[in-house]
Amino acid sequence: MRILVQKFGGTSVATPERRAQVASKVSEAVHSGYSPVVVVSAIGRSGDPYATDTFLNLAKGIYSDLPKRELDLLMSCGEVISGTVLVSTLNSIGFEAVLFTGAHAGIITNDDFGDARIVRVEPGAILEQLEKGKVVVVTGFQGITEDGQITTLGRGGSDTTASALGVALEAETIDIYTDVDGIMTADPRIVEDARIIDTVTYNEICQLAYQGAKVIHPRAVEIAMQRNIPLRIKSTFSDAPGTLVTNMLPDRGVGTDITNDRIITGIAHTPNVTQLKVLTENTPDLHLTDKRIFKALALADISVDFISVQTEAVEFTVSDEVASKAIKILQNMGFEPGVIPSCAKVSIVGAGIAGVPGVMADMVEALSDAGVTILQSADSHTTIWVLVHKEDMATAVQALHQKFRLGVC
Ligand code: ADP
Ligand code: MG
Fold first, then answer.
1. What Rg do the C-alpha atoms of the chain give, in angstroms?
2. Is 42 in the pocket of ligand 1 (CB under 6 A)?
3. Strand 97-100 and strand 107-109: pairing?
4. Is 283's pLDDT higher than 80?
5. Residue 159 Cα to ligand 2 middle (Å)
6. Which of 67, 234, 269, 271 has minimal CB crowding within 10 Å?
7. Which atom of ligand 1 is nearest to the CA of 159?
């Protein structure tokens, strides 16, 4: 049996016309000899009646004290709705389709409600249906704990469902269908001449995804990478070949992840972060102070990023959502942190960045020519990050895209 996982995002299942396009992608797969497993997200985006955000707002607006377990039960309904209508569409064109929830599909998670991790997949029930010639539609974004509680997997969770199923079912490929023609050198909503990346390694795309390129969830890339299952990111609405994510780069053979002609793969951005700066120079034991600050934030479940520890100050970012909570914690410790709200992290990513002279110089030049102030910067062997004011984010992404000539030639 040749198994193909096909995942369709929220915009792909939003209207009857779009669901018909989804059905034709499933039909193409069947006619090419595949047994498809179709993973769906909830219908539409924020504001649409059955979107995940709509359920979240319902709970937040009226029942602000809803326990996490019940919130996950509510959140898991969106995919059940979209899965049901897709089964109906597929049946209407002559396929025998069956809807599986994450629980039916054997997706076992831990009990971290709202952001659960898949720990195991038991694919027996899906295989049974595939053997009977059925198309199995699986609700993305959710699973079940060992003791039978429904969980959800966090933002982008349907991508993770698709990858986990792809690995468990030993699929030939995992196709992630969305509303753009593939992974691009930057978000096409910000950069007009962003270019489709034809082939890219798991590692490069993982970095881009971690830095905010939300076209695919990084966890999904990591899972597919474990078993070397190729991922393809494609459009539901065109026949473009999309982006192939693999370890094989063209003309190179296997495993040439490290050396790469391309210095910069792409540019990603993450808006809505707050920079906090705590002056520590007058505190008696500097190391102890630094430790206390990060311990206190960790205890409050606040994740910090962009950390810079210097002798006189500690700087870091938190998401805007938790900024006031973080400030209160610091004030309770006797600090009056400097706060720059509404910042954005802009990152250039490329396996070839390490050791190439002049990349940082070009980055600084591009940003200063565009009038963008760099609030903070950091780098690793594949990524250089800068923190900028949110109102400069689009300008920064565009300037860097142009400087590194990533656009359509
Ligand atoms: P889906 O609902 O199909 O999962 P998402 O909204 O999660 O879709 O992801 C698709 C969106 O990701 C695109 O519409 C695009 O605006 C955005 N995006 C951000 N960065 C990139 C990138 N580098 N390449 C392609 N799309 C990107
Ligand atoms: Mg998505």
1. 23
2. no
3. unpaired
4. no
5. 7
6. 67
7. 4
Which secondary structure element, helix H or strand E, spans residue 332, and what is its range? helix 320-332
User: Nearest-CA neighbor of 260 among 170, 318, 200, 332?
Assistant: 200
63 or 55: which carries more pLDDT confidence?
A: 55
Concatenating the DSSP letter of every residue in 35-69 gives EEEEEEPPSSSTTSTTSHHHHHHHHHHH-TT--HH
| Per-residue confidence band for 281, with pLDDT thresholds at 50, 70 and 90 | confident
Q: Alpha-carbon distance 73 to 142, whole Å? A: 10
Ligand 1, pocket-test mutation among 48, 185, 214, 346, most atoms within 8 A of CB: 214
- 215 CA → ligand 2 middle, Å: 5
Q: State the pTM of this model.
A: 0.91
Lowest mean pLDDT among 143-152, 186-195, 302-311: 302-311
Dist. CA 45 → ligand 1 center (Å): 12
* Ligand 1 binding pocket includes 41 (Cβ within 6 Å): yes
DSSP 373: P
pLDDT tens for each residue of 186-213: 999 999 999 999 999 999 999 999 999 9
Q: What confidence score (pLDDT) does residue 56 get?
A: 85
Q: In the beta sheet, which residues pair with residue 145?
A: 109
Which DSSP state fits 134?
P
Tokens encoding 201: 């390694």
* 407 close to 193: Cβ distance less than 8 angstroms: yes
Among the listed residues 349, 347, 346, the one whose alpha carbon sits nearest the alpha carbon of residue 381:
349
Q: Does ligand 1 have an atom closer than 6 angstroms to the CB of 10?
A: yes
d(CA 89, CA 233): 23
Ligand 2 midpoint to CA 362 (Å): 32
Q: Does ligand 1 have an atom closer than 6 angstroms to the CB of 176?
A: no
Return the residue matching tokens 């490290």: 258
pLDDT above 70: residue 30: yes
**CA dihedral sign of residues 303, 306, 309, 315:** negative
